């Protein structure tokens, strides 16, 4: 599985679950710096563990739904 080039690609869907991201990072721990998936999960795991959300350009207090 690790020899398959598709295994080393960045996922084509967003990973929002910390446990899933940690498992994926563990699967790529022996990969080199040229592995796109490893770089992706190296950046993603700390962001998810800190509870960061993607920026939506708006306030966290969205009053559009209050009526």
From TrEMBL:
Superkingdom classification of source: Bacteria
Protein name as it appears in the record: Uncharacterized protein
Species per Swiss-Prot/TrEMBL record: Nocardia otitidiscaviarum
């Amino acid at each position: 599985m690790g020899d398959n080039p598709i295994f080393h690609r960045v996922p084509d869907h967003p990973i929002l679950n910390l446990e899933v991201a940690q498992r994926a990072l563990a699967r790529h721990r022996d990969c080199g710096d040229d592995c796109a998936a490893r770089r992706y999960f190296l950046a993603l795991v700390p962001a998810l563990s800190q509870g960061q959300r993607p920026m939506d350009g708006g306030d966290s207090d969205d009053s559009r739904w209050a009526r």
